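Hi W., the tetrahydrodeoxyuridine complex you wanted:
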Amino acid sequence: MTTEKELSIRYNEYPSVESLPDADRRLMEAAIRATAAAYAPYSHFSVGAAAMLDDGTIVTGSNQENVAYPSGLCAERTALFAAGAQHPDRAVTALAIVARTPEGNLVEASPCGACRQVMAETQKRGGMPLRVLMYIGGGGIREVEGTDALLPFSFSF
Ligand code: THU
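Structure:
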């Protein structure tokens, strides 16, 4: 017998960076600034990420590419692994993500599956929800209040 089940995803949208609560606005602004440190000579797609720790510290990351393409790393994992390496006893409470085109326009960066898996584990490691703020087209921000919304049924053992 088959039991059909349905999963729904809850998310919030803000119309602009300016309309975010103060701490989130500062986090998104840090992610926007972090796009300047991207090393993206192959894709020309600069991604910035900023992780908020439970003591208010912000750790940023950007995509770091390599001529051996798979050796490069996305902005999200660069930020989360830097946070884990430098602040192993701090939970990550929020992560802001944005991308910038070579023309300088801010655009959506919806995180890849591998980054979502790392976000899921970062949330589990921190023992509290990890909110994710994603810049979307038109200047808006999409927010999920935990990583489960981005990766249901994530791998764990
Ligand atoms: N990239 C990120 O850094 N984060 C994302 O969410 C999507 C993709 C990077 C990887 C690569 O350097 C470039 O963007 C193009 O895929």
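Residues 12-149 form a domain with the Cytidine Deaminase; domain 2 fold (CATH 3.40.140.10).

W.
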